Amino acid sequence: MKEQKILIIGGVAGGTKTAAKLKRENSNLDVTIITRDEYISYAGCGLPYYVGGVIEDKGELVVKTPEDFKLITGVDVFIKHEAIEINREEKTVKVKVLTTGETKDFHYDKLVLATGASPFIPPIEGRELDGVFSLRKVEDALAIRELVESGKIKKGVVIGGGFIGLETAENLFEKGIEVTLIELAPHILPGFDEEIALYAQNYMREKGVNILTSERAVGIKGTAEVEGVVTDKRELEADLVIMSVGVKPNVELAKDIGVDIGVTGAIKVNENMETNISDIYAVGDCAESINLITGKPAWYPMGSTANKMGRIAGININDLKEKDSLKGVLGTTIVKLFGLNAGKTGLSEAAAIKEGYNPISVLVPGNDRAHYYPGYRMILTKLIADRDSHRVLGAQVIGEGVVDKPIDVIATAITLGAKVEDLEKLDLAYAPPFSMAMSTTILAANVIINKLKGKVETISPLELKNRKDEVVILDIRDEASHRISSIPNSVNIFSEDLYMRGKELDRDKETVILCKIGKNAYLSYLKLKEMGFKNVKVLEGGITAYPYEIV
Amino acid sequence: MKEQKILIIGGVAGGTKTAAKLKRENSNLDVTIITRDEYISYAGCGLPYYVGGVIEDKGELVVKTPEDFKLITGVDVFIKHEAIEINREEKTVKVKVLTTGETKDFHYDKLVLATGASPFIPPIEGRELDGVFSLRKVEDALAIRELVESGKIKKGVVIGGGFIGLETAENLFEKGIEVTLIELAPHILPGFDEEIALYAQNYMREKGVNILTSERAVGIKGTAEVEGVVTDKRELEADLVIMSVGVKPNVELAKDIGVDIGVTGAIKVNENMETNISDIYAVGDCAESINLITGKPAWYPMGSTANKMGRIAGININDLKEKDSLKGVLGTTIVKLFGLNAGKTGLSEAAAIKEGYNPISVLVPGNDRAHYYPGYRMILTKLIADRDSHRVLGAQVIGEGVVDKPIDVIATAITLGAKVEDLEKLDLAYAPPFSMAMSTTILAANVIINKLKGKVETISPLELKNRKDEVVILDIRDEASHRISSIPNSVNIFSEDLYMRGKELDRDKETVILCKIGKNAYLSYLKLKEMGFKNVKVLEGGITAYPYEIV
Residues of B482-521 as b/e, b for ≥16 C-beta within 10 angstroms? Predict the structure, then answer.
């Protein structure tokens, strides 16, 4: 049997997974990876932690050397080999050997594009100065860490408040560097709803990271080395600048030969990882996905998705009969910022509205384990559902406690088409060291069902902020708590005094009840309803979840 | 409007939840709890941790005092009031006031049985001696802790290797007491499959707890105070004995008036928490559930289920039109034993076989987060599916790493009818501090699918133990690893030498390949297959998951 030649362009998660799976499926295949990089199979998501020394050794970042990979899998790997042109008719790829400058052709029977994504570098002046980096490759991390460890860096500026930017800001800060992060949008954590993003933003600021939002970096100052960053509002001193405004899929090679590019800018593939051109597949960060909820194209460059895509391509290239498929993804993501964890799955409330849904949401604080078990921590769950079908659309969970568990539970539920009523009845693992008897996810489902049934009316922090001059804010906590901190212009009547002092309130005005986490406000809501109040609402998540001005 | 009287017998999780929900649904209801206990709303699952001082203060165990509960909810609570007889016709309950001995009648319009469960005390001699306890109520925990803290206890015997027995053994051990645990069955952790249970058993033994299995306690020795335990095999010295052989539902009151008792011995209720007698409901540990997978009656006395049942009863008693329901449960459970976590959901493999399924299972070790992120720990996943429908039937996860997350993900998947193919494609949260790029759950689904497709043949530790004299055990780890510890009579050929030394093996004999966790054995399996071996198998989970004799 003639050996089939499978050529893979790119050697990080998607490329190496495809290659390894191919050889496991059929050791007779001739599988080759070419990559312009020096390293293959590295942990892109670990780079910020290498910069900060949390991951101590370079060897830990690089999962496999080309030699080890060849030895274990039987795959040929050519590093520093850059693919510069594909010839569809000849089924060859022209490759430039970066060490010598020579070019040569690689033949393929099947071609896999695993070209990844590259940092988007805004075209601002000074971006080429020494001390200006992006953080996408192992080389970037090595260079930044070396500079940081030289002790010469006093002030760092991170441009971009996404995951990599935030993680890098944390890691630089932990190295004793004064860090300023600049975000163009009104808040960090793009894709998260405002309340959750601001919660994280307040937390990072309290830790000591200077965060500037709604601000644009317009230039970088310096002669040879970077000296500062100019924004549309000020000038900042800096001896290190990290550009982290986002990544874009590497699709040029594909585009040149007529491979369809999707609306997201990534390579269009079907659920079998096939492009529109026969014998050409695409996997990993260069390839587009489908959002499982909306059914629309979506691009989430994640190592977890790249691995799934690589496995599928490996199976399908070898066996055209029984194809494996990826129906779509949810854009599940998670980040650790100092002691805070923030995760997201499915649609945000803002995205749900944009997509034409009629969403209902709740914001529910709770503990990640029994309140009497030492070490429990608060987590804040935002659960989003479709008001008409009751289908779960998304969730965001943030806090110092465990957030990956509820996010994964809700991701699983969404994938399998769950309604909030399904979520509420889940038989989740309970013992004091692991959970409350009613987990926060179940609590959040309870509250959303109460809302759907009209048993309680609530208002979100965002809505209250926007309407705070139209409503009465009633703080039903005790006087001491109210005095320490509350929302501006709130009226304080302790819950136990409501029967007696309720007459002080104007029944005709919309009244928003405020407590610590929302639960006592709910009880006071019922009390006021019983007393005949018609227009009362509970502030979701209480003061705990209110990320705006507090006095 | 005449106030409806709702009487609830029992004041722990199910009773207090029902009561609180009732008043929130309709504050006009007259809701009363009677309980023979002194404490209500206490954390039954926290009792072992109070004994060991992990939970320091009694106040933390008791979620609400009767006074607080009344103040917050408006529910009347009568402690030390024991219900002794129900009169269906009169709709009254005769109650004995334990402090005075007098009896009085409580009228009801609706009655909720939340009578809980009681420890089963085997009828052995000496069970009434001082120093012999069960651990079910707050009073038990207070008494045991007092004794432990007196410093007089040197040797403790725990009878029963279920969760409470094991947790108590740990907590006593941590207090410096020499602890022996006696289990009648061949292993601890009833309900878990043997490999997983033995993993936990070996771990506890290494920590220093003396565990005796397949052994029956037949008597307790002593005059006034306990001095020892007699088993069918030996005598053990003891100055403290904890009886923890299981609990039984408290159903006598119900039985006396013709309330149907289910096959499990607990009160039969429909999905709305209604018994066969109108206006009588049952919730919590005294009530039976349905197993969501088999559709058959099941009894899992868990605080998490009690809370759900209470909420449903509270909703349904108030509103007969739009009833809430609990379709069933999975028997999801979890326990922490020293640094080891063990969780279970759905059917074990043994239970699946017993229920008539044709199960397929895998045992897959993996890390709970990226291997390059500090602090990662191993977890071992046993995933069980139906070979015909590919439906996920159950899982057990054990290890020092995070196990509650995969258990909850799989519990959610089972509830929503997932197949292993669904599990494999889940878009779970990935970042190095939280998960591997391919989570262990996805890995386990990958392996089970490979098995289903015939791409790999495996053998479980249990099967290998039973058949070890019939097969060749081939250890493909390096010589040093093999020398340190391996399975008795295994042959060592390093994986890299297989091509050269393969001829040393007898191709006609069934060969089981052994490595550290199963992954390299899979690669060697493929290599041997390529070399023409027909009858080879991978030992699932490698030596890591092999809980039997190691030399």
Answer: beeebbeebbbbbbeebeeebeebeeeeebbbbbbbbbbb
How does DSSP classify residue A97? E
- pLDDT, tens digit, 9 for 90 and up, residues B252-292: 999 999 999 999 999 999 999 999 999 999 999 999 999 99
Domain-embedded: residue A127 = no
Classify A372 in phi/psi space as left (phi over 0), alpha (psi -120 to 50) or beta.
alpha
CB B66 within 8 A of CB B48: no
Last residue of a domain, one of A318, A347, A379: A318
**A contact test, residue of B54, B398, B412 with most A CBs within 10 A:** B412
Q: Is the pLDDT of residue A2 over 70?
A: no
Contacts of A453 in chain B (CB under 8 A): 322
ipTM value greater than 0.90: yes
Q: For A370, which of B43, B413, B526 is closest by C-beta distance?
A: B43
Q: Is A54 on the interface with B (CB under 8 A)?
A: yes
Number of A–B residue contacts, CB under 8 Å: 223
Nearest CB to B13: which of A371, A374, A437?
A437
**pLDDT of res. B136:** 92
Which of A215, A245, A275 terminates a domain? The answer is: A245
Neighbours of A467 (CB within 10 A): 12
- Sequence letter at residue A28: N
3-state secondary structure of B272: coil
CA distance B253 to B93: 10
Instruction: Please indicate, yes or no, if residue B241 is contained in any of the structural domains.
Output: yes
Could you tell me if A498 and A529 are in contact, meaning their C-beta atoms sit under 8 angstroms apart?
no
Chain A 217-276, residues with CB within 8 Å of chain B CB atoms: none
Q: For residue B294, tell me if it sits in a domain.
A: yes
The per-residue pLDDT for range A93-113, each reduced to its tens digit, is 999 999 999 999 999 999 999
Give the whole-angstrom CA distance, residue B452 versus residue B399: 26
For residue B140, is it within any domain?
A: yes
What is the residue range of B103's domain? 5-43+60-117+248-318
Q: Please give, rounded to a whole number of angstroms, the shortest distance from the CA of A525 to a CA of chain B.
A: 10
Q: What pLDDT is recorded for position B2?
A: 57
Please report where in the chains the tokens 């004794």 appear, as a residue.
B147
Contact (Cβ atoms closer than 8 angstroms) between residue B168 and residue B48: yes
> What is d(CA B351, CA B192) in angstroms, rounded to the nearest whole number?
9
Q: Kindly state whether residues B410 and B262 are assigned to the same domain.
A: no
Average pLDDT over all residues of chain A: 95
Which of chain A's residues have a Cβ under 8 Å away from the Cβ of B302? Answer: 430
A257 and A112 in a common domain: yes
pLDDT at B60: 86
How do residues B41-65 score in pLDDT, each as one tens digit? 888 889 999 999 999 988 888 878 8
**Phi (first) and psi of residue B484, to 5 degrees:** -65, -50
Confirm or reject contact between B536 and chain A (CB < 8 A): no
- A133 touches A243 (CB < 8 A): yes
Residues of A whose CB is below 8 A from B409:
408-409, 412
Q: DSSP per residue over A159-202, as a string?
A: E--SHHHHHHHHHHHHTT-EEEEE-SSSSSSTTS-HHHHHHHHH
Q: What confidence tens digit (pLDDT) does each residue in A260-270 have?
A: 999 999 999 99
Contact residues, B window 448-467, toward A, CB-based 8 Å cutoff: 453, 455
Q: How much is the mean pLDDT over chain B?
A: 95
pTM strictly above 0.90? yes
Q: What is the CATH number of the domain that holds B229?
A: 3.50.50.60
Q: For residue A137, what pLDDT is reported?
A: 92
Q: Do A415 and B432 touch (CB under 8 A)?
A: no
Q: Are B312 and B273 in contact (CB under 8 A)?
A: yes
Domain with residue B540: its CATH number is 3.40.250.10
Total domain count for chain B? 4
